[in-house]
Amino acid sequence: MSHDSEQLRKVLKKEGLRYTDQRQAVWNELCSSDDHRDAEAIYFSIRESGVNVSRATVYRTIDVLVKNNLVRKLDLGDGRSLYEHKIDPSHHDHLICIQCGRIEEFMVEEIESLQNRVADEFGYKLIRHIHQLFGLCVNCS
């Protein structure tokens, strides 16, 4: 399945990079799942599908996609990062289990409203935010 190659082409051109089938494969793989995965899992999944791609291409392409707001990077606070596509524009935050790595997505309007109020009180115009809560899930606690 090929995802919007035009969007990818524009981003690559902006970054001075050429469009390749391997970079398209990275974008396709990211878009193929709603899971939060690390770059290695993405790399292995692409390789298992029969596409010959280097780790360097996967990592560089992911970085470009994050920089251009097509992919969200979740910093887990322990040196690991997970990635998810941003095809669905609906905003959500993350609740992350520090033991098993389980991730729950949530959106609470009161939190969103409070963040906006805090930004207003300090004279900020809120552009974006990353809200991650770390704890133990019901299975690990």
What does this protein structure show overall?
With 141 residues, the protein is α+β, with helices and mostly antiparallel strands. It has two domains: 5-85, Winged helix-like DNA-binding domain superfamily/Winged helix DNA-binding domain (Arc Repressor Mutant, subunit A, Orthogonal Bundle); 93-135, Ferric-uptake regulator, C-terminal dimerisarion domain (Dna Ligase, domain 1, 2-Layer Sandwich). Helix content is 40%, strand content 16%. It is built from five helices and five strands; from the N terminus they run ααααββββαβ. A three-stranded mixed sheet has the order 4-3-5, with no helix packed on it. A hairpin with a 5-residue loop joins strand 3 and strand 4. Helix 2 (21-31) crosses helix 3, helix 2 (21-31) packs across helix 4 (55-67) and helix 3 packs across helix 4. The radius of gyration is 17 Å and the shape is globular. The model has no long low-confidence stretch (mean pLDDT 89).
Secondary structure layout plus pairing:
Layout: H1 5-14, H2 21-31, H3 39-48, H4 55-67, E1 71-75, E2 81-85, E3 93-97, E4 103-106, H5 109-121, E5 132-135
Parallel strand pairs: 3-5
Antiparallel strand pairs: 1-2, 3-4
What does the overall shape look like? globular
CATH homology superfamily of the largest domain: Winged helix-like DNA-binding domain superfamily/Winged helix DNA-binding domain
Briefly note the CATH topology name of the largest domain.
Answer: Arc Repressor Mutant, subunit A
Write down the secondary-structure element order: HHHHEEEEHE
Rg of Cα set: 17 Å
Q: Give helix % range.
A: 40-55%
Beta strand %: 15-25%
Instruction: Give the total of domains.
Output: 2
At CATH's second level, what is the architecture of the largest domain?
Orthogonal Bundle
